[in-house]
Amino acid sequence: MRFAIVGCGLIGQKRAEAIARLGHLTVLAIDPSKDRATSLAEPYGARAASDFRAAIEAADVEAVVVATPHDELSAIASACLDAGKHALVEKPGGRNLAEISAVVKAAVAAGRVAKVGYNHRFHPAVLKAREIVDRGELGQLMFIRGRYGHGGRPGYEHEWRFKRSISGGGELIDQGSHLIDLAQWFLGEFTDIKAALRTFFWNAEIEDNVFLTLSTADRRIAWLHASWTEWKNLFSVEIYGRQGKLEINGLGGSYGVESLTFYRMLPGMGPPETTRWEYPFADRSWDAETAEFIAAIHERRRPIGDAAEAMTSMSTIERVYQETQE
């Protein structure tokens, strides 16, 4: 499959690398910065351009990766879908529910696949956890506890993520959106929301910490904390069932070795039977997610984590912002 990549920063580069490893082609790299577009294009023998409309006009482009700041995601993805291209849009898919809805409507009208890039679903520890849950080995799920954060970097508050007009919000819509996506993937849609947003450290108009208690209609709960003041990078998701617990830690790199631990309760209670898997190799969630996107196109089906699912996560995010700003 032949791709255009719009937005040639770190995430655009990761997508291009995944596309190449999967044996597909990046034929066009687009970025307002000529240097960034050229830098991404050259290793793959691709063309470089500065305007996303080049992807619409290119007859050889079948699918577009949109890896821009949040304020451009929806408009670019919708335009590409309208032109008959498939779209892999980086999370959260837009700044609000209306912007993601526009992507979904464009995909339906064009008969094309639109997926939002929540790559954490495709980490091997998360996929293994999902397999265990789907086999019923954890029993009925009760609640999830999730924590995710980093400590930023010098000058972080001057980057685009700290401008509400561009990002749509702070840590909630950034790393918090990953936690919400994972929690609803395991527990289902949330109907009751309690939240606290705080700006503890960074000199910014948006939150650097978010604390959430989310409940489903059948009273299952997700307790989530996302932070830009996590001085040691952290990713931890614990999934509790009536027959055991799954604990996911790390994402590789500065977040530590990715692992999954299964604590299986025994009939007599007491200490659980413990099984642990480690995934010390490089992050290949980008490959797995891109492969799922391509497979969905070939098989004419909805991908795991399509734009419609991302609407559910954004609905929760939007409700949190509305209720905490009242």
Order of strands across the main sheet: 8-9-10-7-11-12-13-14
The CATH superfamily title of the largest domain: Dihydrodipicolinate Reductase, domain 2
Helix content: 25-40%
Low-confidence stretches: none
Explain the overall architecture:
- This protein has 326 residues and is α/β, with parallel strands linked by helices.
- It folds into 2 domains: 2-118, Rossmann fold (3-Layer(aba) Sandwich), CATH 3.40.50; 124-282, Dihydrodipicolinate Reductase, domain 2, CATH 3.30.360.10.
- It is built from 10 helices and 14 strands.
- The chain has helices spanning 10-21, 34-41, 53-57, 70-82, 97-110, 124-134, 164-167, 175-187, 285-299, 307-325, and strands at 2-6, 25-30, 47-49, 63-66, 86-90, 114-117, 141-149, 190-198, 209-216, 221-227, 234-241, 244-249, 258-264, 273-279.
- The strands form 2 sheets. The protein has an 8-stranded mixed β-sheet, with helices on one face.
- Strand 5 (86-90), helix 5 and strand 6 (114-117) form a beta-alpha-beta unit.
- Helix 1 (10-21) packs across helix 9 (285-299), helix 4 (70-82) packs parallel to helix 5 (97-110) and helix 5 (97-110) packs antiparallel against helix 10 (307-325).
- The protein is globular and about 65 Å long.
- 44% of the residues are buried.
